């Protein structure tokens, strides 16, 4: 639970007065082979929501995404006054908190320039950050905020601790595509159903999209649902990792029961460009990222998949710049 702020923070009228303008973010993608993918940013009907799309296909677990953002203040001097949020000799910083709920990961990225009383509207601030493969899936929420960097004065009205969050400037959410790398999850409420199950419909593995044909179904009516931490943005639970690892093994087993490994390889190589994100693409993608091979036993595959999830999505991954925000 957040404590009451004992210092001044950004109010709506001050945000309007300082005129912060954030430029449209730029995103690029490089896969494990070093190939660059063009990422389109498309408007959504919902305000402050954007879609990412790549025509040539990319996997979020294989590719690194580089995010570039910038912005400037039309009148930052209003921040440094009794009606602002800092004294005239203070130094402020800009940072962006990112959250990928479906990956249960989050972090904070500090921008490259400070803000002081002499900062002008011609001073452009920016940040560049690269997300490692496997870090993101589903959505990427970005919350850009001001924080106190230095305040040499003792004060009863201004924040004095370095890192204190002074208020949000801008919020945007990206809907990530990834052509099949996102594991579709559906939440139901049925007391008679188990905690989880996998729905798999595989008729044409080289054509059907993984995201349209495979679904992990979680039951919020089950007593064990709370242990999954589905609504906890900063943590991955051991129970959720266990379910994901078991679900992937079930999907692999289901496909291998109908098709041999060579058929999967042929399906991927022959039609992957025409049908990116197919079931064959996704299953072989699991083989690659979890370092599986067809000669492994089911038990050995399960161990390897667990190892991947334990390393890629650790149980705790929480970054917080200020103890005052706890």
Number of strands: 14
Strand content: 25-35%
Note poorly predicted spans. 178-182, 271-275, 316-326
Number of folding domains?
Answer: 2
| Strand ordering within the main sheet | 4-5-11-10-7-8
User: Which descriptor suits the 3D outline?
Assistant: elongated
End-to-end distance: 6 Å
What profile does the largest beta sheet have?
A: 6 strands, mixed
Number of helices: 6
- Helix share of residues? 10-25%
Element pattern in H and E: HEEEEEEEEEEEEEHEHHHH
Q: What's the assembly state of these chains?
A: single chain
Q: Which structural class do the helices and strands define?
A: alpha+beta
Mean pLDDT: 79
Topology overview:
Elements (H helix, E strand, L loop, with lengths): L11 H7 L1 E3 L3 E5 L5 E3 L1 E4 L5 E5 L10 E10 L17 E10 L4 E11 L9 E7 L7 E12 L14 E11 L9 E4 L7 E5 L9 H4 E6 L18 H21 L2 H11 L7 H11 L8 H15 L14
Parallel strand pairs: 5-11, 12-14
Antiparallel strand pairs: 1-6, 2-3, 2-6, 4-5, 6-9, 7-8, 7-10, 10-11, 13-14
Helix pairs in contact: 3-6, 4-5
Could you characterize what this model shows?
There is one protein chain. This protein has 326 residues and is of the alpha+beta class. The protein folds into two domains: 12-179, no CATH class; 185-312, no CATH class. It contains six helices and 14 strands. The strands form three sheets. A six-stranded mixed sheet has the order 4-5-11-10-7-8, with no helix packed on it. Strands 1, 2, 3, 6 and 9 form a five-stranded antiparallel sheet that branches. Strands 12-14-13 form a three-stranded mixed sheet. A hairpin with a 5-residue loop joins strand 4 and strand 5 (49-53).
């Amino acid at each position: 639970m957040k404590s009451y702020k004992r210092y001044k923070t950004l109010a709506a009228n001050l945000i309007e007065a300082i005129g912060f303008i954030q430029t449209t973010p730029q995103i690029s993608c490089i896969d494990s082979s070093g190939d660059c993918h063009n990422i389109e940013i498309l408007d959504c009907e919902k305000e402050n929501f954007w879609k990412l799309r790549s025509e040539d296909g990319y996997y979020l677990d294989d590719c690194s995404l580089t995010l570039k953002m910038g912005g400037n203040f039309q009148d930052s001097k209003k921040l440094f006054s009794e009606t602002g949020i800092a004294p005239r000799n203070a130094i402020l910083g800009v940072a962006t908190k990112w959250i990928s709920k479906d990956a249960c990961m989050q972090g904070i990225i500090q921008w490259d320039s400070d803000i002081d009383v002499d900062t002008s509207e011609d001073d452009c601030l920016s940040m560049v950050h690269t997300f490692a493969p496997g870090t993101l899936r589903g959505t990427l929420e970005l919350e850009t905020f001001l924080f106190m960097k230095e305040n040499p004065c003792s004060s009863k009205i201004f924040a004095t601790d370095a890192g204190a969050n002074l208020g949000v400037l801008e919020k945007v959410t990206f809907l990530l595509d990834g052509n099949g790398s996102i594991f579709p999850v559906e939440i139901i409420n049925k007391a008679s159903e188990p905690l989880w199950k996998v729905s798999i419909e595989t008729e044409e593995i080289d054509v059907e999209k993984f995201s349209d044909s495979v679904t992990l179904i979680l039951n919020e009516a089950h007593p064990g649902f709370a242990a999954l931490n589905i609504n906890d943005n900063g943590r991955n639970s051991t129970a959720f990792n266990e379910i994901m690892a078991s679900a992937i093994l079930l999907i692999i087993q289901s496909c291998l029961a109908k098709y041999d490994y060579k058929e999967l390889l042929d399906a991927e190589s022959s039609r992957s460009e025409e049908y990116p994100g197919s079931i064959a693409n996704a299953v072989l993608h699991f083989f690659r990222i979890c370092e599986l091979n067809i000669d492994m036993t089911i038990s050995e595959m399960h161990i390897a998949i667990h190892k991947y999830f334990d390393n890629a999505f650790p149980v705790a991954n929480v970054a917080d710049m200020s103890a005052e925000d706890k």
